[in-house]
Amino acid sequence: MSEKLQKVLASQGLGGRRTMEQWIESGRVTINGRRAELGDRVEEDDRVTVDGKPLRRIIEPPRHLIYNKPAGQICSRDDPEGRPNVFSALPKLRRGRWIAVGRLDFNTAGLLLFTTDGELASRLMHPSANIDREYAVRILGEVQESQLEAMRQGVMLEDGLARFTDVRKGRDESGANQWYYVVLQEGRNREVRRLFESQGLVVSRLKRVRFGSFFIPSGVKSRRTLAITGKDEVELYRMAGLEPPQLEKRGKGSGQFSPKAERQKGANDQNSARPAQPRRTYARPPSTEETSPPSLRARRSAEKRSAPGRASRQGGSAKPGPARRSQAKPSKPGSRKPR
Questions:
Q1: Which of 116, 95, 112, 99 is nearest to 19 (CA)?
Q2: 269 an active-site residue?
Q3: Which domains occur in the chain, in start order?
């Protein structure tokens, strides 16, 4: 069964579909020795190369996680300024790469989803998915109801119409700061900040608190991650309109297999064909007392106990000494009870 080339590349964790389409257009991908084009489909036995290296099409269970991003990190691997990025805080992968589901700007904190499934990431980020993105916003100064209503109805920004689908007043704070919770269904660059700036308002703090049905658990502190598994993984695919992967395919692959997997498979086959060997029993290793030589003091004590006497060693007879009598202490009268 053939599949779209960009879908196959995305499923290997190389990036999202749009990124893979850019790779194909730039000539980085070939199929059976020829330059790939958009719209190409590949079979299981087709030889696909990326940047001159053969693609090993290995089917592994995808991984997903929640990351609580702090302010002061970028969502890109390459930064000319050398600022810290979110990927340095994620668990290391043996194969594939982490794909960020959307982005948060440098000064925005909060929930970020990561996955190794490129198709899932593309579906979650597409505007047609209509997935809620909720933010906690701290505004410097007073906010008029007319300004909130304008942002609900929509404001024309430089890249098109933008609006909040919901705006709610948050907790009250003493001073000039006010908290609000706003909801978007798209993820354009700095969209929340630009909407408030269009009303002459200044955002002093911004944090994403929800993506679809996913919140940041209270136990996941800043710079911490949490794996998404089980029912949460099923919910993640349902949110994207996809079927969750079949976990019974764990460890199986198609196309080219890795040499390590082939060696392991051959070793298993060889062990299964080998006749069963009888179980060996081993003697108990000697203890330390049995193996260590006796000390000098112990040897002298043993010689004294085995010697017949000093006179016998000199060829004479030993004079018997007076026999020792054990003298019992006189008992006090009345101390012994009559039987």
A1: 99
A2: no
A3: 3-59 (3.10.290.10), 64-242 (3.30.2350.10)
